[in-house]
């Protein structure tokens, strides 16, 4: 019995040492992996007063994307923007503006997502009144001139038109905006300002007669 115990004890002790060594190795690897993930989540560079411009083939400005701060994250190769501002141009003149609290740019730069107090403004022209859209999330495809959201939107247009809906798709090239669900429209017919001047003028003419 003693001889059998003398043989088994070294084997048992070696097994315990092997298990302890394995446990230590796994623990170290897990800790290293956690630290590596934590480090990879850290940004590798950032810029302040960021601004990028894309031009058309003829040299005119297509759009300008700017932000107070731009931070790049190497883990997923994404870019985060603080206070982003997207300005679309037509004939080198700003035609619309999109701004918000935070922005994210995809790896290939083909998609820009803006969240937190998003405001879209179509600037007033000689033929079109000013229009504004408000939501809390908007995805922009700059090179396709498209934008969309599944979130609630509120649209106002001068002088007194208000539209509320859930979800919106906008295709600028084709000039089509599609509201997806629960569309409600409030419209007030504008009052002609010159109506009040008609009667006094008529009275003056009658007096001359």
From TrEMBL:
Any Pfam family matching the protein: LptC
TM region(s), chain numbering: 7-24
InterPro entries given in the database record: LipoPS_assembly_LptC-rel, LPS_export_LptC, LptC
MF terms (GO), sorted A to Z: glycolipid transfer activity; lipopolysaccharide transmembrane transporter activity
Keyword annotations: Cell inner membrane, Cell membrane, Membrane, Transmembrane, Transmembrane helix
Highest taxon in the source lineage: Bacteria
GO CC, one annotated term: outer membrane-bounded periplasmic space
Protein name per UniProt: LPS export ABC transporter periplasmic protein LptC
Native source organism of the sequence: Candidatus Methylopumilus planktonicus
